[in-house]
Amino acid sequence: MDAKSRRMVAVLAGCAALGAVAIGAYYWTRSHSPAQANAEQSEVYELAMDDADGHRQSFSQWKGKVLVVNFWATWCAPCVAEMPALDHMQQELSAKNVSIIGIGIEDQAHVRQFRDRLGLHLPLLAGGYESLALARSFGDYQGVLPYTALLSADGRVIQSQTGALEPGQLQEWLKGTL
Q1: Any residues with CB less than 8 A from the CB of 74 and at least 6 apart, and which?
Q2: Residue 146 vs residues 3, 26, 109, 142: alpha-carbon distances, Å
Q3: 42-47 long-range contacts, CB within 8 A, separation 24+
Q4: 104 — phi, psi (to 5°)?
Q5: Nearest-10 Cα torsion for 21, 24, 30, 33
Q6: Alpha-carbon torsion angle 129, 154, 38, 57, nearest 10
Q7: pLDDT by residue (tens digit) across 126-150?
Q8: Phi/psi at 125 (5° precision)
Q9: What tens digit of pLDDT does each residue of 5-41 get?
């Protein structure tokens, strides 16, 4: 096979690969529709994760509350930057039937060290990398951190944000739910 034929085969193979990726992305997106995500979210209250101290925390304790779920990591600079504000808001909003929880995608020791270093009080769960599947079910199809989802009292995602929350954004989200 001459050089021109090899280039043509390489171009055709590249086009076929791009086509396969596009088809896969199309079907993956269709299989992860908002309707399916909300069906999965109704099962959120059946979940449980260990917190920073190794105590098992059932999501059922937040059933009936507006729930802000923030997915984060200790190595994620925007995650670290927004955590003190989330902690402060948790203290303000706890009397208004709103809970803010953080799900670290790391192990318990890293989550505990992070909590202690920053002096945080909001519930921090150690979900490990497996918790990214939960973030995906809440709409984080890109896998970007931080990712924050606002769940209604019945467990439906009603707002979400990829990347750090802007100042005042969470308060705006909550205006329609409180």
Answers
A1: 80, 104, 106, 110, 111, 113, 114
A2: 48, 25, 20, 11
A3: 42/154, 42/155, 42/156, 44/134, 44/151, 44/155, 45/155, 47/134
A4: -80, 140
A5: -80
A6: 20
A7: 999 999 999 999 999 999 999 999 9
A8: -105, 150
A9: 565 544 444 433 333 333 333 333 333 334 334 435 5
- For the record, the structure tokens of 7 come out as 């280039």
Pair 65, 174: CB distance under 8 Å: no
Q: What does CATH list as the number for 43-175?
A: 3.40.30.10
Q: Kindly give, in sequence order, each residue whose CB lies less than 8 Å from that of residue 82, ignoring residues fewer than 6 positions away.
A: 70, 146, 164, 165
CA distance linking residue 79 with residue 82, whole number of Å: 5
Tokens representing 34 are 């908002």
- Size of the chain in residues: 178
- Domain locations in the chain as residue ranges: 1-31, 43-175
